[in-house]
Amino acid sequence: MSSSNRQASLSPGERQRAKSRSSSRSHQTPSKTGAHDEDKQRAKTSSQTSKRNTRETNSKKHSDTSPSNRSTNPPSSKSSTSKKQRSNVKTPASSSSSKSKSPSSNRKGGSKRKKSSISTSDTDNKQISQANDSERQDLSSRGLSMVPAEILELVTLRRLILSNNNLSGLPTGIRSLIHLEYLDISRNPLRVKNGLDDYFCLPREFRYLRNLHTLIMAECTLKHIPVAVWNTVSLQTLDLSRNKIGYIVGEIGNLINLRHLRLSQMDLDTLPPEIGFCEKLETIDLTSNPIDNLPETLVECRQLYEFKINYQTFYKLLDNYMIQLIDEGKIHSEHIPQVIFELEGLQILDLNTTKLNTIPNQHTLINLNELYLSNNSFFDIPESLCTMEQLKILDMSNNRLQTIPEYCSKIERLETFILSYNNLTTLPCHIARLSTLKSLIVNNNQITAIENGFSQNRSLLTLDLSHNNLEIIPNELCNLVQL
């Protein structure tokens, strides 16, 4: 029987049940071709999803690291959906991205730590060297016991200040500072071994500093001067003040370029004859030294224009009788080394507080510009001063002067005349004849009268008459309009 005949012989209810069973079997047993196509479709969809997630992850990473791509706008719904998909689907790409981000984060943290370390090191270096200046370094008052290695690497350094530290010497590496011109190591406990081996505080390598022109070694508790000093022939300024040095060796004559020599507050009783080889000397400071003799060769220093000495210069150990004579003003100019008055090139002479009472008539101080004779025992102004044709400043304050002699008007170039704290009673008119006089200081005397004639002076700018016994001020002083 054909199928059409079978369907025709079935009742309507049976035909409906048969149709349902046939439909169910068709759904439950799909064809092999359909199943294969469905598997390919699912694999393709999965691959596309993975590629899309990888692209979105890389895009996000680039956007996060690029400042130009940052945005403050809220994310779109599409972006939100993509984020949800990435959070639900863990692909190898996202995992790889996560792993690659972690080392980057670690490197960033490491970079921060390294930067912090460099900053700390820079701070320490700044405390040591104070400034990143390759030519000037001031390391004074740092409590240093050695010269920092960083300083010895500054080969272009020209000025170095190491004063007021705890240095006992300089390292051999100082030789690298070949351009150094100025070195201050004052107020350090430098040590020099007595004898042949005295290179402890200044090594032999010090001689390589061929451009050094200024060396300050004041107040270093030295008892001997290192040999290296005398071998530094480039020196122009040498300061050894306030040390315990009792003599200067003849090697000072090696310093043929020396211009300024400071030897104050030491234990010197003389200078060596070799000082005459320092022909370029311009200033010498010997204040507060017990010098009782000076070499005649000092006259060879023809460029010397400033010479400082004081009361202690003229005697070292005197008996009570000699001291009494000094106090009474009975020690005369022969106790001053005569060579001082033979220095033709001398321009400034400081003889303050020496208990002098006269100046020798025979002298060659023809170029002297400034003469300081305060705090002495002069009863009169020495007439020999009139031959000092270049004298511009004369200070005779704190003496025992009673008058101003007329020959003082012959000091034709005098500009400043200081006579305070004396016993003057009259201000004579011949002072007004000093045509170049600009400042006259006569305070703290016993002046009771001012002679007529001051109205003729047109150069006077300062006149100090304070603390005298004047009762009337002459009217002609009112004509000094330049005062």
Global structural class: alpha/beta
Name the overall outline.
Answer: elongated
| Helical residue percent band | 25-40%
State the end-to-end distance.
158 Å
The ordered H/E elements are: HHHHHEHEEEHEEEEHEEEEEEEE
The number of helical runs is 8
The spatial strand order of the largest sheet comes to 1-2-3-4-5-6-7-8-9-10-11-12-14-16
From the alpha carbons, calculate the radius of gyration and give it in angstroms.
49 Å
Which segments are poorly predicted (pLDDT under 50) over 5 or more consecutive residues? 1-9, 26-36, 60-124, 126-131, 311-334
Number of strands: 16
Strand content: 5-15%
Main sheet record: 14 strands, parallel
Average pLDDT confidence is 75
What does this structure look like?
The protein has eight helices and 16 strands. The chain has helices at residues 3-9, 12-28, 32-65, 77-88, 92-129, 149-152, 227-230, 320-327, and strands at residues 136-138, 159-161, 182-184, 214-216, 237-239, 260-262, 283-285, 306-308, 348-350, 370-372, 393-395, 416-418, 426-427, 439-441, 449-450, 462-464. Strands 1-2-3-4-5-6-7-8-9-10-11-12-14-16 form a 14-stranded parallel β-sheet, with no helix packed on it. The N and C termini lie far apart (158 Å).
